[in-house]
């Protein structure tokens, strides 16, 4: 199943963004939040994603997107071509400082896959692809990521970037703030990539309401030991010291929606 567009962003905002993107030659996009690649052993980043493995990235459930079809393209690309596509490895967050935004090369897959890959791009009206990363405010271990798509050839997009690249960056940063404020509960990586399960989040919501593990176990028909297992995992992921700190961090990271 491909990721779905988040319904938390009004379609008028999406249409406005696409209209402004068209000035730079782009007509479609998807936007999501990723855990930042790091060498740190910090619990905040443990067991999240390895960007070199497409199967992990393909766990994403929601994105802010121009349309559902572009997310279908994303899934097919990740499943069929990403392992052999040189651009996929080069566009990873680890090189974002030196090539950001990153314009994908037009011939990045092996020759034997070139024809079928071109057919995929043609089917989705894609000639150029661009990726842009930006660290997320207040979340040092998260990155916002845009993938932009254009029917124009790389040469023309490259010329536009040389002329208006800074204006494009400012537009992307402006709308990233909007998307984050509206859709953080759907696209934050702890939820979006199933780092914390729906059951774990349900338990956190009940803890935030003041219920004990015993009370929660009765409500959701689970053993108290099972409830505590989910809470222990959440403590590791969020690097929380105790239940109070765990609830606080769950709000801070957008796992829980309502402000305390």
From TrEMBL:
Q: Which InterPro entries match?
A: Sig_transdc_resp-reg_C-effctor, Tscrpt_reg_LuxR_C, WH-like_DNA-bd_sf
Looking at the Swiss-Prot or TrEMBL record, what is one Pfam family this protein matches?
Answer: GerE
Q: Which residues form the HTH luxR-type domain?
A: 189-254
Q: Signal peptide location in the record?
A: none
| DNA-binding among keywords | yes
User: What PROSITE patterns has UniProt attached to this entry?
Assistant: HTH_LUXR_2 (PS50043)
For this UniProt record, the keywords arranged alphabetically read as follows: DNA-binding, Transcription, Transcription regulation
Establish whether keyword DNA-binding is in the entry: yes
Name of the protein = Helix-turn-helix transcriptional regulator
Q: Which organism is it from?
A: Shewanella schlegeliana
């Amino acid at each position: 199943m491909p990721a779905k567009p988040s319904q938390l962003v009004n379609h008028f905002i999406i249409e406005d963004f696409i209209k402004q993107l068209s000035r730079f030659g782009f007509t479609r996009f998807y936007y999501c939040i990723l855990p930042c690649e790091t060498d740190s052993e910090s619990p905040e980043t443990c067991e999240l994603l390895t960007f070199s493995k497409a199967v992990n990235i393909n766990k994403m459930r929601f994105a802010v997107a121009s349309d559902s079809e572009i997310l279908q393209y994303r899934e097919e690309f990740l499943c069929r071509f990403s392992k052999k596509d040189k651009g996929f490895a080069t566009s990873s967050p680890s090189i974002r400082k030196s090539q950001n935004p990153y314009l994908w090369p037009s011939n990045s897959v092996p020759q034997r896959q070139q024809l079928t890959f071109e057919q995929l791009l043609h089917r989705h009206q894609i000639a150029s692809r661009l990726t842009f990363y930006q660290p997320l405010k207040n979340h040092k271990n998260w990155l916002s990521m845009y993938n932009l798509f254009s029917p124009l050839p790389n040469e023309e997009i490259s010329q536009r970037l040389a002329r208006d690249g800074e204006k494009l960056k400012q537009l992307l940063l402006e709308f990233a703030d909007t998307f984050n404020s509206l859709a953080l509960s759907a696209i934050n990586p702890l939820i979006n990539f199933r780092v914390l399960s729906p059951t774990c989040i349900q338990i956190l919501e009940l803890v935030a309401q003041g219920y004990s593990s015993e009370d929660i176990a009765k409500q959701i028909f689970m053993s108290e030991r099972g409830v505590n297992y989910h809470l222990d995992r959440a403590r590791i992921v969020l690097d929380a010291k105790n239940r109070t700190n765990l609830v606080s961090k769950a709000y801070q990271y957008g796992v829980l929606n309502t402000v305390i």
